[in-house]
């Protein structure tokens, strides 16, 4: 093996080592981003579940207040939160109107 072959071999091995280090870095970065995405997706799923539960709760509270002849405190609270419900015939859920988030 002469000198030129030796330096070419050393250069190519250095390139392989650099590519290996780059691959390791990219794999770690990808795993980190995947974990972050999974956490965000879990928070979104929980939020959707909570939103459904809160909507059901609001409908039931509204229906209860209508059975008791209306509750002025509830109406004030809904007005402060900018939530309005339209009364519907029996057997139908009231229509909810919520302003867009700021």
What are the SSEs and their pairings?
Layout: H1 3-67, H2 72-80, E1 84-86, E2 95-97
Give a description of the structure:
The protein is mainly alpha-helical. The chain has one domain. The chain contains 2 helices and 2 strands. The chain has a two-stranded antiparallel ribbon.
The chain-level mean pLDDT equals 82
Q: First CA to last CA: what distance?
A: 72 Å
* Total of DSSP H or I helical runs spanning 4+ residues: 2
Uncertain regions spanning at least 5 consecutive residues: none
Please give the order of strands in the largest beta sheet: 1-2
Largest sheet: 2 strands, antiparallel
Q: Indicate how many domains the architecture comprises.
A: 1
| Overall number of strands | 2
Percentage of β-strand residues: 5-15%
Give the SSE order as H and E letters.
HHEE
The share of residues in helices is over 70%
Structural class: mainly alpha
In one word, what is the shape? rod-shaped
Work out the radius of gyration.
Answer: 31 Å
């Amino acid at each position: 093996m002469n000198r030129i072959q030796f330096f070419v071999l050393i250069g190519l091995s250095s390139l392989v080592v650099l590519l290996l280090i780059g691959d390791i870095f990219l794999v770690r970065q990808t795993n980190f981003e995947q974990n972050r995405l999974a956490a965000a997706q879990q928070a979104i799923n929980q939020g959707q579940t909570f939103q459904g539960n809160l909507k059901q709760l609001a409908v039931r509270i509204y229906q209860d207040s209508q059975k008791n002849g209306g509750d002025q405190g509830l109406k004030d609270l809904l007005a402060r939160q900018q939530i309005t419900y339209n009364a519907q015939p029996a057997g139908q859920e009231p229509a909810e109107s919520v302003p867009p988030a700021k």
